[in-house]
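User: Predict the full complex structure for these chains.
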Amino acid sequence: MPGLNPEADAAHWRKTRNLTLFVLAIWAVFAFVVHIFAGTLNEYTFIGFPLGYYLAVQGSLIIFVVLIFFQNARQDAIDEEFGMDE
Amino acid sequence: MFKGDFIDNLPKIYGLYTGGFLVFIAIMAVLEQLGVDAETIGILFVAFTICIYAAIGWISRTTQVDAYYLAGRQVPPVFNGMATAADWMSGASFVALAGGIYFGGHGYLGFVVGWTGGYVLVNSLMAPYLRKFGCYTVPDFIGTRYGGNLARFCAVVILAVASFTYVTAQINATGTIAARALNIPFELGVWFGLLGILICSMLGGMRAVTWTQVAQYIVLIIAYLVPVIWMSNVQGFGLIPHFSYGDAVQRIAELEATLGVGTAPTETFAGLKALVAPHNAPGEDAGMESWKFFTLALCMMAGTASLPHILMRYFTTPSVRDARQSVAWSLLFIFLLYFTAPALATLTKLQLLDPELPTAIIGKAIDDVMALDWIQKWSEVDFLKISDSNGDGILQINEFFMRSGIVVLATPEIAGLPYVVSGLVAAGGMAAAMSTADGLLLAIANAISHDLYYKIVDPTADTKRRLIVARLLLIIIGAAGAAVASLQLTGILGAVAWAFCFACSGLFFPLVLGVWWKRANRQGAVAGMVFGFAAGAGYLYAIQNGMEPWYGLDGLRFGIIGMPVSLVAMVVVSYMTPAPDEETQAMVDEVRKPSGRTILAANH
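Assistant: Here is the predicted structure of the two-chain assembly.
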């Protein structure tokens, strides 16, 4: 029964927080890091695109979409584990 | 055919609607073949779609508070995703994004990354928790989590400033499109656009806006994708251009060298630009370019996660899990447009530049270029200008000036597509601007009617009175927005970026830390909002009045000044003052649990 078990609540929050930190770390790489090195990455090509350019127009965007669907699937599993799914 | 209630039948209803819209496009194409002129087709497109939205707005009218503020909390994730995508993609995204990439090159892609990556923040830090809270508005969360009317009031002020900045740009865009499509003066177009916006939102509040936004998303995404894919096939760039324009990017880099892209034009024309930035390669000062990319993306992302008209969409789902799911769908639907815009910008540029393509104009004789239909048409309305600066009779790259919106608006004509496509694009731009304006106006009016009027001024007001006040505010704020828009103070995109920076300066940390830091208290939140917002706004004021921007932090990026000030003020003041009471800390614990009842009861 959620709400009556502070330890389970704390464990649930810890897992939620760790998942969030993991997601934000990946986010930071594709939101900022790869674009800071766009000039260097442009020396490589990916499906015909300069890589740095590709990451800004498509690559990062695809990662963001996949990342959110992944995060939600993981979060659902965590919620279910602690009986907090609706 | 329709069993069960409205929600069960949503896929069928919107499936039929989409089919109907496609049939309408086909009818317009037939009319064009029969000799109906372009102007009439444009008017029919815009008028027909606005009538549909108005009908949905009328059908969705309501007298219930929960339906007015939260669409009854019954919007399924996929549909909430579409509504959010329409809410999100403004006239600027639709009309100006591809043009911005065309002119701005790699640096401008910070907008593309920022306006998509922001949803990871929304999903991770905000949406599920605000949904669990059960608030009607964003200031409702601030006011309840931190307690006290002052915190609530500060949140209302920041929300109003950020959203109002944004909504004037949207009303401006509806005015521009209505004026062009219906052949009326801009000032009249603005008020006509406002009328359409109010019909969608006034009678049904959030419920009406939700169902019109879904309809508007369908129109705008068809209107964006069809011309690009059609153009790509006509011009031989491939069936689906998105994955195959890499060669075009590399070809443009070669052409930039031979055509002298980067040579500054010797003349200027108000509102028009010549192409000088390289399409891809970071320019000479790579460190500065990286910094500008980073700061722009960060401001747009944090702004995304702080803009109330987006956050409030996630209050309308049946559960916390559905709120998260609808963030995922939102981003997927937004992604469809955002990964198309760079393809459009690249292919349009290639068509104009590459001498091997029949559409090229650069390097051709000026007299031949001036004879082209699309050049004449857009010159007439001052959207582009050709001027033989060096008098050699040949069009150079720095002699061709245009507005950024033209990349989207003129693509069908540059590629020689039938006029029906241009009519479709006008309808799509109208849908994009209207849907965003609806969401913004509702966010402001709801915050003032719920948080300022009901929670602070008159807590005893009955339902009928609350909804009358909410609707009156909608009209007043809309009229004020239209009045400001008709003054045409800034370009569409400048004002949009300001809204993001205002929102993230004042609201980002008070919202995030409200969930993620139990120690955050009322005094800290008020300090975070006041100092963050004042620092950002003060900096903007200074650079608008001639101060040299620090480290390239211009008017698009002043959130970089506001956010750290907000964070530091909030943490320092929170530690200097007593911790929040037991009850508040228990409330934060409860917000972190996805199951169970909302913190705020229905009809609060």
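The domain at 37-45+64-72+82-257+277-347+417-591 of chain B is CATH 1.20.1730.10 (Sodium/glucose cotransporter).
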